[in-house]
Amino acid sequence: MPYADLQERREGSGMHAAAQPCLRVCGERFHLLPEGAAWLAEERLLVVADLHLEKGSAFAARGIALPPYDTRTTIGRLESLITRLKPQTLVALGDSFHDSEAEHRMDADAAARLTRLSCSLDWIWIAGNHDPVPPGVFGGVVKEELRIGPLTFRHEPLPAPQAGEIAGHLHPCAAVRVRGRRLRRRCFASDGTRMIMPAFGAYAGGLNVLDNAYDALLPGFDFHAWMMGARSVVPVSASRLEAD
Predict the structure, then answer these.
(1) Does some domain include residue 214?
(2) Could you give the C-alpha distances from 60 to 55, 64, 74, 205, 211, in angstroms and in order?
(3) d(CA 56, CA 64)
(4) Residue pLDDT, tens place only, 196-243
(5) Does residue 11 fall inside a structural domain?
(6) Which residues contact 144 (CB under 8 A, 6 or more apart)?
(7) Rounded to an integer, what distance in angstroms lies between the CA atom of residue 207 and that of residue 200?
(8) Coil, strand, or helix at residue 196?
(9) What is the domain count for the chain?
(10) Angle at the Cα of 29 from the Cα atoms of 160 and 204, rounded to 5 degrees
């Protein structure tokens, strides 16, 4: 792992490791958090992807009954991270809202909490395919993409090579066998030159990193899936992963 800064301390199932493993992307050092966010401490920058707020209510409107708690759960996790880390800037990498009507379905309490968060720091909404025009009522600034030093933050990853790209969209997850038991988890996917972020939203789901959709993004097996455990994130070589 030439690009990993991790002193592993395996526990239990093998999915726990030392707190806040670090991944370098084009020399920039990210702390990967088990909540599914990335923390660029030098910039005091917190990155999340694919919140998909109000996905539950969107499904309910189509007659698919899901408990309507995904938005409050997702916002609660954001509140906890912001309280703990005190970032100066938050970048949300697109598909923050599940569709163009999400703001109208959101209850007043959740909307007020989200507004308080977005007004408490420099909040940047990256436009996604589900929300090309994120609602302005929640504050913040909307951008197609954001460049900071060698890094480019965008929603949908572009075909390799894309050195410095930090993207979301695909909701990466990975599966591995540990002590005879198959574990499937959301993950960060990186070859050290780019990173694809896991979905942060409670109902977002995931696409296995061995799916053909990643072939042009992470060619071959020269990458790691940084799998999210209960308390930390553990890198697993692509050669150890299992397809769905």
Answers:
(1) yes
(2) 9, 5, 18, 17, 29
(3) 9
(4) 999 999 988 899 999 999 999 998 889 999 999 988 999 999 999 999
(5) no
(6) 126, 127, 154
(7) 14
(8) strand
(9) 1
(10) 60
